[in-house]
Structures are given as C-alpha cells and as structure tokens.
Amino acid sequence: MSAPIGTDTETTTAPPEAAHGVTLTAPAAEKAKALLDRDGTPGMVLRIAVQPGGCSGLRYELFFDDRSLDGDAKVVFEGVGLAVDRMSRPYLDGATIDFVDTIEKQGFTIDNPQAQSSCACGDSFH
Prior knowledge:
Elements: E1 23-24, H1 26-39, E2 45-52, E3 58-65, E4 73-77, E5 80-84, H2 89-92, E6 96-101, E7 106-111, E8 124-125
C-alpha cells in the first residue's frame, strides 16, 4: 500500500549551519565574551559585515547582534558565536579578527587577505 498523495514518509532534519572562513583569535574571543557577559543578552553573536563606503570602497562593520539573517554563516569560537552574512562572506574568506591591547593601540583588528588595498585608518579596503 502506498502513502497518500501529499504526505512525506521520510523524516527530514534541518541542514547543518553554514560555516565561514573567518577566524576569531583566542584574545578576540575572550574580549568579545567579556563584553557580552557585561552588556549582552542571551543569543547575541559577534557579527562582521562588509558595507559600501570608506575611502577605499568597502568598510568593515563589527558589532554584537541578536538577529539571525537569512543566509548567515555562524561559527562558535570559545563560546562566542561569530556570524557572517551571505553577501559579506566572499569578501571575508580567510580573514582573522584579533584583539590587541598595547600602549599604541587597543581594540579589535581585522587581517583580511582578500583586501587588495586598504586606507590609512584600517577601516576601509578594496
């Protein structure tokens, strides 16, 4: 006997979350986790995105986000979710996010091998 038309006799599972090629270093994950523990809400992730603008044509955005966008790729680093949207993923493949704390500089840095050139401030690339 066959199953009635319109019924599914197989069980389906949700596809695994898409991964991305961005790395969050241990110091960056530690700092992000500390900031999330202090000011965040459950379910927030660190999101890196690429937007038009800046003196070189594209600029990075790095922020905490509680949204889940269609096409997001998310990887968890030491308890911190790092999300990349579908449009930004090709521009960020192979990038590394680090956190530096020196006399000269403090903050998150992005080393992106996809960037052909960047501006002096380091926030914009092409």
